[in-house]
Amino acid sequence: MKTGRTKMRIANPMMSVPGAMQALLGLSEAAEKTGLDKNFLELVYLRVSLINSCGVCIDYHSKLLRKANETDERVYSVAGWRDVPYYTDAEKAAFALAEEMTHVHVSDDVWNEAAKHWNEAQLAGLTVAISAINVWNRLNVATQQKVA
């Protein structure tokens, strides 16, 4: 009986290309060093992963958030962040920035709103973090990585 699930096309490139895993992990670690809260970044990673339909990353970041005692409402409502009261204005600005960066166009309005909430180093860190999760998503989706 076919389940409709596809198998991985290749092994995870991050594990196959020497130095790739360390390089990409380094981007996320660098973003965290700008003073951005880890749970906040995990919510951003989850939002981007939902946009990109990366099941591996959705599963992973949801579990990390739950393990960090993030509330069910905040974890499970991230896709509808505009319509729920669970996020701060700063978090909403980050989600808007993450969405526009993922679609490779950032309007001045979205950029300026995000810039109201973080200093330059933190805003740079946020853009690096958003870029890093987009790389993870694209690699996982292209190679059809599966949740273990």
UniProtKB/TrEMBL annotation:
Transmembrane segments: none
Record-linked InterPro entries: AhpD-like (IPR029032), AhpD_core (IPR004675), CMD-like (IPR003779)
SUPFAM superfamilies, per the entry: AhpD-like
Carboxymuconolactone decarboxylase-like domain mapped to chain residues: 18-100
Gene Ontology MF, one: peroxiredoxin activity
PANTHER family: 4-CARBOXYMUCONOLACTONE DECARBOXYLASE FAMILY PROTEIN (AFU_ORTHOLOGUE AFUA_6G11590), BLL7811 PROTEIN
Name recorded for this polypeptide: Carboxymuconolactone decarboxylase family protein
